[in-house]
Amino acid sequence: MLNLFVIGTGIIIFFIVLNLIVIKIAGEYRKGRVIAGIIVLLISPVIFYSSLFIGAQFDDGGFGTGIITLFFTTLVVLNGSIILFVGLFTKPTQTIINKR
């Protein structure tokens, strides 16, 4: 039970840190949000394998590890997709006008 609590706490902390990094990178720029969403989607395989290997240390059978890995990776993919869609379908909030 304690292992599940540690893994759940780690997942929550990871999403908080990930979203704070995305907010810092993107700011109010539409292009930054799109790039941040693509980066989050591209790191999902790394998160899949790292959570698989970390979870395998706690679970001997492997079924719980697979469930937690799929759940965690699905949350990361959904988070990245939401960031990407927000970046794609919102109006640009800031425009840069070149004055000459």
Describe this structure in words.
The protein is elongated, with a radius of gyration of 17 Å. The model has no long low-confidence stretch (mean pLDDT 80). It has four helices and no strands. It has one domain (9-88). It is an all-alpha fold and 100 residues long. The relative contact order is 0.16.
Beta strands, count: 0
Work out the helicity level.
over 70%
Mean pLDDT rating = 80
Low-confidence stretches are none
Which term fits the overall shape?
elongated
Largest sheet: none
Number of helices: 4
The span between the termini is 65 Å
Q: β content, as a range?
A: under 5%
What's a concise summary of this model?
This protein has helices spanning 2-26, 30-42, 44-58, 63-89.
Top keywords for this entry?
about 100 residues; mainly alpha; 4 helices; single chain
Secondary-structure map with pairings?
Elements lengths: L1 H25 L3 H13 L1 H15 L4 H27 L11
Helix pairs in contact: 1-2, 2-4, 3-4
